[in-house]
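# nightly structure sweep
# worker-07 picked up a monomer target from the shared queue
# config: single-sequence mode, recycle default, output format = structure tokens
# input follows
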Amino acid sequence: MTQTLDISERSTLVPAQTFRDGMSRVGAAVHIITTGGLAGRAGFTATAVSSVSDEPPTVLVCLNRNGRSAAVLAENGVFCINTLAVEHQALADVFAGRGGIGGEERFLHGAWEERVTGAPVLSEALVAFDCRVVDLRPVATHQILIGQVEAVHLGPARPALIYANRAYHGL
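# output follows
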């Protein structure tokens, strides 16, 4: 029997800062998640990205549900995971909100195109997964976004941008 636990009501002995400090030591690839459609374009930098299945090709992204991108993405129903190369550090900062650039103005940085779903694809990405939303689930302060991959764009192989210990690295 499966039991659902509402974690928003569960107290924890782990302080939020301790958890953040621990997670900062987990290295992860850096991505820009984008969406486009009738609700407009939006995008954000993320490391909480994972494959779910290869039949059908399915991915998972976690995003803050209080941010502008969450509402736009939910309304558009499409998104693209753009995996960054080491030379994209400045672009990662733009989409992370550093420097005060927001909304569609972020897309003035980098070379963007549209593919299958209409979500912006970074032309120079290591790989871009163009997806349709199949499920959105709220969990605590975030939303788990599950998407079916409609197309994959493979860019040239080169060192990836990784985030670990609160800094960017190349791998």
